[in-house]
Amino acid sequence: MKINVIVMLFFTTVAVAQTQKERIDVRGNCGMCKARIEKAAIQVKGVKYAVWQAETEQLRVLFNAKKTTVDSIAASISAVGHEANGVAVKDEVYADLPMCCQYRDESSKEMHGTMMKH
Do 29 and 103 contact (CB within 8 A), yes or no? Predict the structure, then answer.
């Protein structure tokens, strides 16, 4: 009986130790950006939670560090058109974003009432 409890505690501790919280800088403007960014992050195997805020341009993520990394999450987000942790976006991918999501355009930022950080 004691052994079972010890084994269960060990595995619980290991599982918690693998979970990591991070903040990732992600460029974007609006609710459509939010949905796209969060979906790209959640689709990465090991990501359990992802919430992006336009005001801060930060994504809060909770993920299993044994299954993924911040770099992998940033690459997934970059692939859908949003610069994440400095990972560049291909020009053709960025050009396909809706006008309201084109964060490089200062007038788009002003339209959403957010400040340019970069």
Answer: yes
25 within 8 A of 57, measured Cβ to Cβ: yes
CATH number of the domain encompassing residue 34: 3.30.70.100
25 falls within a domain:
yes
- pLDDT for the residue numbered 75: 98
- The answer as to whether 8 is a domain residue is no
d(CA 46, CA 19): 9
Q: In the chain, which residue ranges form alpha helices assigned H by DSSP? A: 2-18, 31-42, 70-79, 91-95, 106-112
Look up tokens 């355009």; give the residue. Answer: 105
Beta pairing partners, 87: 84
pLDDT digit string, tens, across residues 84-115: 999 999 999 999 999 999 998 776 656 655 44
Other beta carbons within 10 angstroms of residue 117's beta carbon come to: 11
Please name the amino acid found at residue 107: S
